[in-house]
Amino acid sequence: MSAVHAANAVPSTADAADTITTGSWRPIELAGTFDYEGNRLAYTEYGAGDDVVVLTHGIMFTRRMHAPLARELAARGYRVVTLDLLGHGESERPAESWRYSMPDFARQTLALLDHLGLGAAVVGGTSLGANVALEVAIVAPERVKGLVVEMPVLDNAVVAGLLTFGPLLFAARFLPWTVRAVGALARLVPHGNQWADVVTDTLDQQPAAMAALLHGVFFGRIAPPKSVRGDIAVPALVIGHERDPVHPFGDADTLAADLPGAEFVQARSPVELRLDPTRLTEAIAGFVGRCYSR
């Protein structure tokens, strides 16, 4: 642990209610913050060791969504770091849309590695986080041991994404009181259940920041183009599923075909890793182990 990190690290209050025990051993959990271009970004570390995994979340979600997977990997001897990207969770939420883009989210992830004094890691994420992982592999392939890409959002998802998030953007811009009202109701829900907390975290938004986030993401570069994806040579585990227009099976299947070192796993549903995680957790742990030659 770097001296800077040790100074900033504190026991995680965001995840304290979710802490679980693996047998008689409980992974260390530390929360910290660091500065990125004048904005504070928040993260949580699970476990310790030289083999590192970094996980980022879906759009409007928070790092809490990856807490169960992070704990499971930490119990297997990995150091896992979950990051709240700018505009999410406990990180700052500026109201300027130009601050939000997939390439900049990738730079935030690399800044986290710099802050922790880490050379390279397995980088993974879900939905927005999956695309961020791809961008990291393009910007700094030497710092990526492998990619865990769950539910990527490529060309086939653009229209469905706009139809899904367009009304949210409209509400945040022109009916901000609705966003504030939903957030106020979400804050009334008691914390303590992992997935109830994930949902309430997602509903607790700030109208101006939410509008800026959605505008910046959906009117910028959603994902690396096909002409670039073939240059991503690091090992990759791509997880996709059917029956979800925002994360269509065709996008995951296409991505797996585009990446020279990809393995593909088909999930049974969008929530398998959340509600019935054993099979996919084993697949992810096995892939991370191969990345580190375990």
From TrEMBL:
<dbReference type="InterPro" id="IPR050471">
    <property type="entry name" value="AB_hydrolase"/>
</dbReference>
<dbReference type="Pfam" id="PF00561">
    <property type="entry name" value="Abhydrolase_1"/>
</dbReference>
<dbReference type="InterPro" id="IPR000073">
    <property type="entry name" value="AB_hydrolase_1"/>
</dbReference>
<protein>
    <submittedName>
        <fullName>Pimeloyl-ACP methyl ester carboxylesterase</fullName>
    </submittedName>
</protein>
<dbReference type="GO" id="GO:0003824">
    <property type="term" value="F:catalytic activity"/>
</dbReference>
<dbReference type="InterPro" id="IPR029058">
    <property type="entry name" value="AB_hydrolase_fold"/>
</dbReference>
